[in-house]
Please model this.
Amino acid sequence: MSEMSRPLEGVKVLELATFIAGPCCARYLADLGAEVIKVEAPNGDPLRFTAVNEGRPFGDQEDTSFCLENAGKKCVTLDTKSQAGRDVLEKLLADCDIFITNWRQPALKRSGLDYETLKVKYPKMVMGYVSGYGEKGPDKDLPGFDFTAFFARGGVMGTMYDVDSSPMLPIAGFGDHQVGMYLASGVLAALYRARETGKGDQVTVSLFHTALWDIALFLQCNQYGDPSTQYPVSRKKIANPLNVAHKTKDGYWVQFAMPRYDFYYPTFMKALGREDLIGDTRFFPQTALQDHLVEFYEMLHDEVLKRSLSEVEVMMKEADLPYAVCQTWNQILVDEQAWASDALAKVTFPNGAERTMVRTPVIFSETSLSSYERASFLGEDTEAVLAQLGYSKEQVSAMIAAGEATGCKRIG
Model:
């Protein structure tokens, strides 16, 4: 069978975005075969300078964070506030199918880069817009990061922890990656229609709305007022204790996932060696259990704590019951399934270090995996891209000399 071309070959994407959500979307489109040009300000995308936050070496010689979000793109450095830089940007806009940005609306409007302005000049263009809080409402222009707009205001940190504990330590990029992939689905749908009708659109995905969608199942449950849905709650009082993680005697946490309590209960009690509880009216059916949640939780806690992780795994596998070990990141790096399913890849950086990187999570059967190389250095592709736009070497050199564009400037 001959391999099919990548789905987005021939599609041109312009990215004017920083940090993670917007660049993540564009990186995925690059994986699908699109030509992606990323425009950075002369001082670079701030993500190039977050090494200390992530405990990695500073500089572009081993910039795993920038690589994760920007592999497969051409990186151009322009002062878009200068006339020459803005002229280049306009040529890139005129040539692109998709324009992705996360600039806040006031800045876009001041720069004439808002959708209402651009659609007049480029009616077929699809604009993918990343927002903190959306485009309407009193807080639409607030700065938004996933720590604030997604985790905090979006109802994750304020609810998803044991009531006797404290809010979780949020993971940078967690909400951003979801926004980026949601945005990709939207811009591809809009691109399909633009190809069919000649009419583009703006697609907006916000961190805040994404979080609300992610917690939507229990957000609607909360409205009924049942104590088990008024998060944060005690882990001992979850309405279905078969959906709670428990600790083994050798210190591992195992997450059970048996959402149909009445269906799984008899099989699980048998696997646990507690056949005596199968007919116990305190714990079955689930409606009766609600008056005995703490008692059942403590029984289950004690039973799991008697067993090692290997014993729990054998017990669950033999009964064909759903579970997973709560893995640390070190465990994921050597997880056989992660490697076998092509979720992970090795990348060698310019300093010779080989690091494990994560692929975007969409796999095609008829298209091979895209190569995973390091992302471009700051300004590395400026001269080549401007040459493609028709600029002579002398013109490019003059722009660089005037500070209107920059070539490759390594930062470490």
